[in-house]
Amino acid sequence: xxxxxxxxxxxxxxxxxxxxxxxxxxxxxxxxxxxxxxxxxxxxxxxxxxxxxxxxxxxxxxxxxxxxxxxxxxxxxxxxxxxxxxxxxxxxxxxxxxxxxxxxxxxxxxxxxxxxxxxxxxxxxxxxxxxxxxxxxxxxxxxxxxxxxxxxxxxxxxxxxxxxxxxxxxxxxxxxxxxxxxxxxxxxxxxxxxxxxxxxxxxxxxxxxxxxxxxxxxxxxxxxxxxxxxxxxxxxxxxxxxxxxxxxxxxxxxxxxxxxxxxxxxxxxxxxxxxxxxxxxx
Amino acid sequence: xxxxxxxxxxxxxxxxxxxxxxxxxxxxxxxxxxxxxxxxxxxxxxxxxxxxxxxxxxxxxxxxxxxxxxxxxxxxxxxxxxxxxxxxxxxxxxxxxxxxxxxxxxxxxxxxxxxxxxxxxxxxxxxxxxxxxxxxxxxxxxx
Lengths: 282, 143
Ligand code: SF4
Ligand code: SF4
Ligand code: SF4
Ligand code: FES
What we know:
By secondary structure, chain A is of the alpha/beta class. Chain A contains 10 helices and 7 strands. Helix content of chain B is about 40%, strand content about 15%. At the A-B interface, helix 6, helix 8 and helix 10 of A face helix 2, helix 3 and strand 4 of B. The site of one iron/sulfur cluster (SF4) has 13 residues of chain A, from helix 7.
């Protein structure tokens, strides 16, 4: 039985027995290769589920939206499961209200190209799940192009970095799609929407754009699971993963660990060690 | 626009009430001289300094920002500066990544008894920012 057939069978069973009120997964891929999100509340609807790992969204995002409905099953790749872990660490979800159907991930491929997040993915397999559907995926070698681009960025002078980033972020139209698709960006009032006091200007002025992106990246430190949903959602193609990779690297190198990989540990920026490195402090 | 020679930077300093602010006070009552470049904002603890404050100071035209709190282990609230230190580390790296000039934003620990160190720190930070010139990067200019 192939993986999709097994998944459909389990989803049907869970819904028929009333063990879950909904199964969140993805449907058959379109011509571009991207699978739409699929919400099944009846065994019939579950017939359209596939075990494609090419859904552009991070499915943990939807769990937040249905968390009051009872127990929900979700098909989780490595990054979906990491986001779920972060949400559990932060008490946004209840583990007993989740049934995680894990699948090993082959990456998100659109028009023959692997999404940049998937090209350097270190955790394609879910680290928490209730059952695995099919075999775990092999961890692929990270795309050397991406590491090369990151290394090149670090070699640039501050002036060059500023110039390039300005050109990039000048194009941001502040639509906040990057925030909306992120499961771990769930503040009821985001700092950009606060009006009493207003924290950051609403215009797409370069200075405000920079501040938005720096603070967003900071808020995601130790919490971003590098799924790339924000990057794929951006209508003007801003390289958000460049920010996310850098922050994840800082957190990994200074405090250890990748976000959402260890449920027993709190997120890195909510704790400290007395001997955390402080070479940058005078 | 001030020319480089006469450029007098404005530096916003977020000082924690219990150590660094008292250190600045000590520098004052000891009649130590340091450049009149800083504008002090007293905060309860370095842990109160949201990275956003730092960015907003730069947006509103500060040429430099100094953030200072108690030495690790001496925080009045025990752990405020430890938690802040992780936040500042990530911010510091992000600023570097974005190409904000190193030295625009300085982090320090200054105790209540380090009046002299405080005066020296402000002198050095001012010199550094003078060399960098006026802040043009994050400053918000309306068209
Ligand atoms: S950008 Fe920050 S404030 Fe806004 S939703 Fe995300 S985490 Fe919350
Ligand atoms: S910031 Fe982007 S890459 Fe990180 S978890 Fe959110 S959507 Fe995923
Ligand atoms: S999705 Fe893109 S354009 Fe929209 S706010 Fe985010 S970075 Fe800016
Ligand atoms: S009170 Fe000074 S750093 Fe916390």
